[in-house]
Amino acid sequence: MTREELRSKESETQSAGWHMLSAFVSLAIIAGLVIWLDQLTKDWVRSNLALGETWRPFSWLPEYVRIVHWRNSGAAFGLFQGGGGVFAILAVIVTLMIIFYFPRIQRGDWSLRLAMGLQLGGAVGNLIDRLQHNLAVTDFIAVGNFPVFNIADSAITLGVIILFFSIWLGSGNESEHKPELGKERAASE
């Protein structure tokens, strides 16, 4: 191998390392913001409202928009009550899958990165609650007759919607959602 080939190979390795580091930094920022906001709001609700208590913070909002302190031992939006242990395990699996797959996303695919960051933040936010509060999460956002939910549930839902539209709108460009391949393999395709 010539000196130029060695330098090129070294440069590719460094570039891949920086790509992976920047991928994890962006994931940590997105997920970290979701987790921080989720935990901050849940803590405020637990500290200021009794279980079942309702608060209408803004008189200009219709009365069907309110804050309600609620415990949820099921999935998002009150589904599958009593399944907190199963959802804690699923949150760990989803977290590990996102961490594994995230650095393989194309550099320019910001919508997929955002979607996965939101889903990770939501999964970890609710996992923290389940581990600290007897396999239940604190829900508090109430709109009409829709089940009470929280910031983590919203982040997961928004992440799934973004993921769906990203895949749907990008379906004509299959390479956009392919994991990055090594330079040698990509050149051969």
Write the layout of secondary structure elements.
Layout: H1 3-48, E1 54-55, E2 65-72, H2 84-101, H3 110-132, E3 137-143, H4 151-169, H5 183-188
Antiparallel strand pairs: 1-2, 2-3
Helix pairs in contact: 1-3, 2-3, 3-4
**What is the average per-residue confidence, as pLDDT, rounded to a whole number?**
84
Sheet of most strands: 3 strands, antiparallel
Outline type: elongated
- What is the gyration radius calculated from CA atoms? 21 Å
The N- to C-terminal Cα distance equals 24 Å
Strand line-up of the largest beta sheet:
1-2-3
The topology string of helices and strands comes to: HEEHHEHH
Number of helices: 5
Number of domains: 1
Unreliable segments of 5+ consecutive residues: 174-178, 180-189
How much of the sequence is in beta strands?
5-15%
Assign a percent range to the helix content.
Answer: 55-70%
Question: Structural class of the secondary elements?
Answer: mainly alpha
- The total of beta strands comes to 3
Task: Give a verbal description of the structure.
The protein has helices spanning 3-48, 84-101, 110-132, 151-169, 183-188, and strands at 54-55, 65-72, 137-143. It has 189 residues and is mainly alpha-helical. It has one domain (3-179). Helix 1 packs across helix 3 and helix 2 (84-101) packs antiparallel against helix 3 (110-132). The two termini are 24 Å apart.
Could you name the key traits of this structure?
5 helices, elongated, disordered C terminus, 9% strand, three-stranded antiparallel β-sheet, mainly alpha
